[in-house]
Amino acid sequence: MIVGTAGHVDHGKTSLIQRLTGVDTDRLKEEKARGLTIEPGFAYPEMPEGHELGFIDVPGHVRFLHHMVAGSAGVDTVLLVVAADDGVMPQTREHLQILTLLGITRGLVAMTKIDQADTERRQQVRESITALLAGTPLVDTPILEVSSHTGEGVEALRERLWTLAEQQQHTASQGHFRLAVDRVFTKSGAGIVVTGTALAGRVARGDTLRLEPAGITARVRGLRRQHRESEVASQGDRIALNLTGNELSRERLQRGDWVVATALATPRRQRFDIQLELLEDVPALKHWTPVQIHLGVNRYNGRIALLEGQQLAAGGSMLGQLVLDTPAHACLGDRCIIRDPSAGITLGGGSILDGNPPRRGQRRPERLAWLAALAECTTTTPLDLTPALQQGLRVSPNGIDLSVLAYTANVEMAALVAQVAALGGDTLTVQNETRAFSREALELLLSQLLDKLAHNHTHEPSMLGTERGRLTRQAVPELPEGIARLLIERLLAANTLRAHGPFVALPGHQPTLSEADEALWQQLAPLLEAAAFEPPRVRDLVTETREEERIRDVLHACARLGRLYQVRRDHFYPAATVVEMADIVQALASEHGRIQAAAFRNRLGTGRKLAIHILEFFDRVGFTRRIRDERVIRNADMWH
Fold it and tell me: Which parts of the sequence belong to the Tr-type G domain (predicted)?
């Protein structure tokens, strides 16, 4: 169990921890000199076998508030400290607000310095604490009176804390390893060391990890958990990792970075959809307000985009989006604190919902419904994605991108696929992308493909079919092409479609010309046949009743039907003429062994340029092969 202190500066948090554990958490010279905590400190008292208890002492001074937020990462129990002589103070209130926004719901209250207050004063402070906690998750939290100076009440507080630790339910490590770095230093004989609280997963000596956002790969040379040497550490542990790697250097690491499993390595992200909550006693928040965001152990500057309106009133909640100035790492359910840097006040906070929001359609009803379902998932411990998957299958016609969800929620893909199957859905996987669909959504997408193909057959009767990529762009434009092609493969496997090379067609489709195109072809065919080896170009076939583009379209259609061959642009030869020219090529090969352009030109009676174009056509289709300035036959049976 990790206990974090909270409370106003100089209310005795550090002294109390020293009394409870025997450890002075103020380790910095400046902290000793000034008598106040500047950065979080840590203490781990001896506990019975099988139980562990750690204390994180966070600063109380307003100037070090960001360290207080950072120190709260990984805390599951709070020890709220209020001095009996001062009572509830501004930082007491703000710390409690932050703890509430961070989702911490369990704790104790220590009324300190009772040796400096009489009975009446203690009762006044007790009443003010009770009023402060009303309406918060810590309502009805026990208030214990202590004096770090005399020791009065300390043993009773220790017993309560130790009992809570022994009652703490062990939570199995979930997801891939994540650690928010709060210290980086170099140790003689060891090298680079980073410390932090494991927020998820498990790590062992020898593991390969990634440091984000630097994108550096490192190996765990050694580790300590709760200040003791260990081979492994898990979610909730306070860890020091001794890292090594070719790219690793002290200058490339800093407080606020993340150490994560390689599965969580990702392009750096600067936009995060969140469930936003505004405090009661703050000004209304307008869309695109500049804010300071505390996320993990770092602070970021950025803006808030509101997704459900242009303004959020005090005490309200709304779906929103953080737009950060610099990249960050976050997963589903991570909490953030939002402050107004100019006014120096905490505005509210939020839960991370999606770290890969779409660029368009952010406010569409189905998108907002998906985010609302993700927000519902963050209210459960451990994380249960069932509400989000149910909603996503219901409202996402193009499926749920499970690849993004697996990363965002830090869960294994296999677990998501199993959940989708249990909900009656289906999944499609291509390369590194997996999408989940309801059965109804899949049937609709398959119908869209078939309907568009039928439409194309009607309007393009001369086509063998529709090229796969074109069909997916026409029928399911918002679906990733790889997934859309899998749908086509399903239709082919079920014999609902037929394949003709890169084209697909409905069974029974036979390419043919429309009645009007057939009539035009009957006018053009005699002109092409009569011209022998020098057919007219398209522009030469134009008349008052025959437009150039229409002629070109019909000739292309006839080429697809095998009636013509396009030897070069706008030069179409009847199939019988091409066979005749192939016979000439073969005769020249029989007579001379190889075909020369001049001899071929003489046999055709055309110009040299046209003869070479025809020979190049035979090269392209595989009938001949060029060797320097001559050609040989590659496939003598091709035209017979």
Answer: 1-169
Peptide bond before 327: cis, by omega within 30 degrees of 0? no
What is the C-alpha end-to-end distance of the chain, expressed in Å? 84
Q: Residue 484 and residue 445: Cα distance in Å, rounded? A: 9
Phi-psi region of 226 (alpha: psi -120 to 50; beta: other; left: phi over 0): left
Per-residue pLDDT of 292-317, as tens digits, reads 999 988 889 999 999 999 999 999 99
Neighbour count for residue 150 (Cβ, 10 Å) = 11
Give the 3-state secondary structure of residue 522: helix
Can you spell out the DSSP letters for 209-267? EEEETTTEEEEEEEEEETTEEESEEETT-EEEEEEE-TT--GGG--TT-EEEEGGG---
d(CA 84, CA 607): 109
In the DSSP assignment, the letter for residue 259 is E
Angle between helices 386-395 and 365-377 in degrees, nearest 10: 170
pLDDT tens digits along 537-586:
999 999 878 899 999 999 999 998 889 999 998 999 999 999 999 999 99
Residue 525 CB contacts under 8 Å (≥ 6 apart), including other chains: 563, 574
d(CA 145, CA 151): 11
Cα(640)–Cα(626) distance, integer angstroms:
21
Helix (H, G, I), strand (E, B) or coil at 358: coil
Q: How far is CA 46 from CA 43, 52, 165, 226, 264, in A?
A: 10, 8, 12, 11, 35
Q: For the whole prediction, is pTM greater than 0.85? A: no
Lowest-pLDDT range, 98-107, 126-135, 329-338, 429-438?
98-107
User: If DSSP codes are grouped into helix, strand and coil, which group holds residue 9?
Assistant: coil
Cα–Cα distance measured from residue 394 to residue 442, given in angstroms and rounded to the nearest whole number: 12
Q: In sequence order, which ranges of 266-324 are alpha helices (DSSP H)? A: none
pLDDT confidence bin for 31, thresholds 50/70/90: very low
Q: In whole angstroms, give the CA distance from residue 69 to residue 62.
A: 11
Q: Contact 47/75 with Cβ under 8 angstroms?
A: no
Question: Amino acid letter at 396?
Answer: S
d(CA 195, CA 184): 7
CB 319 within 8 A of CB 368: yes
* Best CA proximity match to 561, nearest among 547, 551, 580, 574: 574
Q: CA–CA distance from 635 to each of 365, 564, 582, 632 (Å)?
A: 61, 20, 11, 9
